[in-house]
Amino acid sequence: MTTPRFDLTGIPIVKKVLVSRWLQWSLTAITLPFFVLAILAGLFGTPAGNRNFGIVFVWIVWWAVLILLLVPFAGRLWCTMCPLPAPGEWLQRRALVQPRSAARLYTLGLKWPRRLRGIWLQNASFLLVALFSAVILTTPAVSALVLLLFVLIAVGTSLIFERRTFCRYLCPVGGFIGLYAQVAPVEIRVKNYDICVAHKEKTCYVGSNAGYGCPWLVFPAALDKNTYCGMCTECLKTCPMDNIGLFARPFAADLMAPKGRLDEAYKAFIMLTCAFIYSLVLLGPWASLKEAAYAVGSASWWLYAVGFLTANLIVTPGLFWLCTAAARRLGRAGQAARQAFIEHSYALIPLGLAAWAAFSLGFVFINLSYAWQVMSDPFGWGWNLFGSANWAWTPYLSGLVPLLQAIILLLGLAGAVSVVLHTARVHGVAYASTAPIIGFCAACTLVMMWLYM
Amino acid sequence: MATRSRRRILIAMLTAVLAMAALLVPLPVGGPPPQSRAVLIEARSFAYQPATIHVNRGDRVTIDLMSLDAVHGLSIDGYGVNINAEPGRNAQVTFVADREGKFKMRCSVTCGALHPFMIGEMVVAPHTAVARSLLATLIVAVGAAGVVLLRLSTENNHDNTAL
Fold first, then answer.
1. Strands (E) located in A141-261
2. Interface contact B143-A414, CB threshold 8 A
3. Fewest CB within 10 angstroms: A44, A77, B62, B162, which?
4. What SS3 class is residue A423?
5. pLDDT at residue A1 greater than cutoff 70
6. CB of A238 within 8 A of CB of A212?
7. Chain A, 83-142: which have a CB under 8 Å from a chain B CB?
């Protein structure tokens, strides 16, 4: 059976907005000033994180919007408006809105080395950021310098390599957004594959006077999942056949017949493990863990780092390997062990997204009231622009958060069970043999619930 | 087809109701008679000592907050408790632990880099969250499997009919 979907571009106003060249610029114009202020506040404002706009707006407000709303419901929409690659992209295009003739790009235009393609580098960059996260999340100057570093790398990459190479292969945030975008109930896809095949100019990929060739290096007709589509809508602008649409679809439609890759599987392991470790370290009552994570370079930090990397790269994948091996033995399936390991790992995508949402709920509502303070006094210099600088810290919904966390985790488990059984169906494996994998997902859910409840 | 679709919706709704019941319905679990408890909590950047306090439902709890290095607060999720102490000047609060479960204790006064993560826990017995979580997890795993398998069998039938 084909997945039911509804073409949102059939609604005239939606189509008009999506094909407008002003769309992406307008969205970025909204986010960029906040981003610049976050960097300035980080560099020149108070070192107290919860009094600094840079920390509060990036790691509480933006993070909450990203993980609780944008990714689960709109996939990579954030990538459309992300300010990090914007300066590099504008330099590359030497234009803000309308493309120059034939969408020419001003870059050396090198292709990213073949052996570095995939998301292994994004896995590594995320792990690197995550390893230092106790410092990055709480120290304004460090947070600002990390954001600046991302911008510099993105600009450098834009000038040397083609299109949005930074977003596609390097960005630590883009890696997990792409992974979890597969859950979102929207997708950009071609309407009729045959029309694309017959269309010789392939303007969606090479560009035209109407817009740029896919900045994400994707040929839209080959898109079968949201992971690598940045939702920039350039292809809707450049397709002369009106053959590309934005579709509404059921949640997690991409995951029902996953075409697995080991780098994406590892991304799923890393994300799930990090959600657990963050919950344990940052939201748990164990001060020695927090101090170890924060004291970069100390003996206890090295111990933490070894444990962190071992858990991410060996323990979680190893336990999951044992579960898939047990499932193969139960099912007596002819599926290769590596393939079973990779493809069943996609069940961890709804589970991991739920784990991150639950973790985020654990501090977002509690600390959201700091946002009112820093809006009036972004640098912590004693300003009171809107009269809210001295509003007291107020934890919102604190009595309700554990229940919300449990509900989200259980929804993630239901999603994981669905992916496991659909994957088993695709490979003709007995459903009962997936019990160890479902057991793994249930155990992860239970451990997270134990941490929160 | 329509019958199976209705059955799927029914199983999904039943699963949701049972899981919520497992998480929320009060259990007839007795406990020791309420008593008065005094707890001394030492606060330093960014830790409470003890990090976890255990009381019983109905206990009259008096917390004596002692700060060892800077001004620290102590706010308890869901209890509306919030006190501040500074070195040499303790703060006290008394309340009745009338809700069972695990509740985060948080510093409510900015005290440094890790301030938002200065967290302790108050566990009010009978703490049935682990058993409740286990039950809810089992219900959802089985219920979700039931819904999906019913859907897959419908799709198989549909595919066979198409052939």
1. 186-190, 207-208, 211-212, 244-248
2. yes
3. B162
4. helix
5. no
6. yes
7. 134-135, 138-139
